[in-house]
Amino acid sequence: MASQQANLTNATALLVDSDHFTRGIIAQMLRGFGLEAPVLLGTGKEAQDFLLHNYVDICIIEAMLPDMMGTDLVTWIRRREASQIRFVPIIVLTGYTQFNLVSEARDAGASLVVKKPVSAQMLWDRIVWAGRSNRAFIETADYVGPDRRFRSLGPPNGIGRRETDRSPAQPVEQAGEDHEEPNRKKAAV
Amino acid sequence: MKKSDAKKIVYPKTRLSELLEQPGGVDRDAAIAEATRAIETLREDCSEAIGQSIRAIEDVLARKKQGRLPAGATREILSHADRIVTLAGTYGLTNLDAVARALCDLIAFLESAGLNTAAPVAVHVQALRLVAPGAAPLPPEEIGHMLAELAKVLAHFRATNFHSANA
């Protein structure tokens, strides 16, 4: 089991959210975790200007910024080939009705997507997990970011083999689903 | 292999992973308790912000013409309602959170169906007022009744505009 202790005292964070109150709440949480001075910005352009000359240890970005989509900012960070910043853990915050942005954020290269409101427990656990997980970082023409299939499910247990799951002799409604190992249905998002 | 199929896999060591393991860290529960205490200092400001957001939605509603919301109004209302959900959820204002979510669901439906009817929005905003910080507390059965009625409003619009929402 991972240690319940973590040291965020010397870590730096960038929080980009257009809402003044959301910024305030999350900044207070980060301070409570020990981060001295999180950088708080309201637009994607401000964030880009800041990141051109600065490194941070974690980025927390609203999914829909006033001047660009948060996912565009994530893509911009992930494609900065000459800079270490492209590997930074990025948490994207979506609003209550923005569930359609979850897959967009994931495909842009976000490390994690979290729906607002964010609780202190949720934020601590996500930051620590993002720091400690040793996810592969994938670079292709279409995608740059952490591996989107990051849970280790182990090898198949022999039940529900692909060859026989839906053989032509077997009616579709009787095949597959019920034989599948339960934890394999929960493939990573 | 085509150039577009090229894939590179690396396992970068981030600075965060090193910092987390430095000596002098804090226990998870202690960190969360401290963060919870820190956000409590903003409770009053956030209560005011909730009031401002409700007023902002009322201002948008006041611009209605012949029972119709002006262009772009649903986006504007949604951003304020979303903020109320965030603030209410953060500070455990469960009744306000439930009503604000109901408003978000309604607006999302109106948008998807291309509707701009103001009346159902107005009902939800009146309900927000009843459960906003500073309002006289309502008995739980009243709250339950109110939420059930709001759910009926959305159900009615869904039933009567099913085809336009799925067009």
Account of the protein in words:
- The complex is a heterodimer of chains A (189) and B (167).
- Chain A is of the alpha/beta class and 189 residues long.
- Chain A has a five-stranded parallel β-sheet with strand order 3-2-4-5-6, sandwiched between helices. Chain A has a two-stranded antiparallel sheet with strand order 7-8.
- Chain A is globular and about 55 Å long.
- The longest helix of chain B is centred in the C-terminal third of the chain and has 21 residues.
- The two termini of chain B are 42 Å apart.
- The model of chain B has no long low-confidence stretch (mean pLDDT 92).
- Classes of the chains: A alpha/beta (189), B mainly alpha (167).
- At the A-B interface, strand 1, helix 1, helix 5 and strand 7 of A face strand 1, helix 1, strand 2, helix 2 and helix 3 of B.
**Distance separating the two termini of chain B:** 42 Å
Question: What is the average per-residue confidence, as pLDDT of chain B, rounded to a whole number?
Answer: 92
What is the 3D form of chain A?
globular
Low-confidence segments of chain B, given as residue ranges, are: none
What does the radius of gyration of chain B come to? 22 Å
Order of helices and strands of chain B: EHEHHHHHHH
Report the oligomer: heterodimer
The portion of residues forming beta strands of chain B comes to: under 5%
